[in-house]
Amino acid sequence: MNADRTNTEWWRTSVVYQVYIRSFADSDGDGLGDIQGLRSKLPYLSALGVDALWINPWYPSPQADAGYDVADFRDIEPAYGTLAQAEALIREVHEAGMRVLLDIVPNHTSSTHRWFRAALAGDAEARARYVFRPGRGTGGQLPPNNWQSNFGGPAWTRTPADGDPAGNPVGDAAGGPASGEWYLHLFAPGQPDLDWSNPQVVAEFEDILRFWFDRGVDGFRIDVAHGLVKAGGLPDAPDPQPGSNHTASHPAWDQDGVHEIYRGWRRVADSYDPPRVFVAEAWVASPERLARYLRTDELQTAFQFDLLRAPFRASVMREVVDEAAATADAVGAPSTWVLSNHDVVRPVTRYARTQGEHLLESAWDRQHRDREAADVPLGLARARAAALLTLALPGVAYVYQGEELGLEEVEAIPDEARQDPTFVQSAGTDPGRDGSRVPIPWSGNEPPYGFSPPDAAAVPWLPQPDGWADRTAAAQEDDPASTLALYRVALAARREHLVDAGPVSWVQGTDPAVLAFSRGSVSCWVNTGSTSVPLPAGRVLVSSASGGADGILAGDSAVWLLDDRRVS
Ligand code: NOJ
């Protein structure tokens, strides 16, 4: 039993494992992960020692954005399985002592959702659930405002003549010249934005929450939680490219009206026993803005993305920890730490190049084609150290699948194999997010590395690289120096010594390249410099490199020390 399932405050201290289901484990050989594959790996996740799973969207979808274009929020994508299998999975996760969070996508639907189909066919009630506007300029041939899609290109697509029952949003391609209104899509054209000022939209999503809560789901990760409400009148943005940098002020993001929606959701969640929980994906300008989502009648947790934007540099990381903790504390919420997810470059690769002085301006930072070569062993050493930092902090920690195997970003995906709409919409200037989504290597010496069964009919949906034989879970299983072993040991030590250990207390007077703090009887030391530094006395609980026991902390490494005198 991993977690105490009677503890209703579990979400304050949990370690949540992100399952990107498409790339996790393929049971039927179609090259896509699925629910049966995930069920077969529950013993692995239990042994890893995580408390909960967050499963990326698994609903029916044409996959214009890897499932974030949802066609039906109350069913399962056939390629991933069935509703009955999903229910069995939820039961089994609970039996294993873990919890399940799903991913809700309230900012937009798929363009194949029945609502949007009806809207294009001219149904006025359905149209009012989306953001249709007349164009500007003579004949309305210009988009209603200057907003750009997050994936590149305009955030608006013009529809064929209004009310054309054969309505097809791609204009000339099928339905004749596009001469109708435009619809808003902050992401791909296949992801029309909903209009959250419409009470039907509000009611629909509260009902979707109940649908899954009734099936035992413990909570939701909220996609683009900061995007649902747009500024009245949809004014031009000062900087039209909201895109990669959600921290700039923009009329589409982080509008005050969004909070009322979450108050309603909280009431739904609190009507269940035990109460259900949320984690917001909200890219906002500051920790203060983030804390607004965490007020006592809103969401319990929200991803703190600043650590993910931080270089491997003690001064910046320390500032992030201090600021995040202060603002979350002020509203009584835990900090929610995350080093990676399916949208950003994997930490091993982020840390494999020269590190900046400040937070990355853009969380994505994928424009690496012309940059220095990645030093992957160095990146791995730093990623292991950053993992120990993250797991030692108070609050919640998310682990993205493959992080525990030390996977690096796959940067060399051939252009023709890329699937992320970002690549196409940016006209190839942004390689997109596929490099962090490559299917997990489980065993064996060559692709598909146990991701698909040996007799699989199809190859994995994204190509796995050669040379991952030493990254597989099987290869790491019995190797105490492996990253898998590091995560297992760290998660067990966290449970034993850190879960209730209280706030961070910084060790003063350390080398500027060193970040050191204690929590209860454990101190965490991270050396972001390249030269060794001395360590105080203490029993080494976990070490990201082989050292520590000799009183020396090597460069680019971290260690947890136990002060035996302080163990109660
Ligand atoms: C955030 C998700 O994490 C990302 O993968 C997706 O493309 C956008 N939201 C749009 O839903």
Give an overview of the whole structure.
With 568 residues, the protein is α/β, with parallel strands linked by helices. Helices cover 24% and strands 13% of the residues. The strands form four sheets. It has an eight-stranded parallel beta barrel. It has a five-stranded antiparallel beta sheet with strand order 12-13-14-18-16, with helices on one face. Strands 4-6-5 form a three-stranded antiparallel beta sheet, with no helix packed on it. Helix 6 (199-213) packs parallel to helix 7 and helix 12 packs parallel to helix 15. It is globular and about 75 Å long. The two termini are 24 Å apart. Residues 164-168 and 170-175 have low confidence and may be disordered. The chain binds 1-deoxynojirimycin. The site of 1-deoxynojirimycin has 9 residues, from loops.
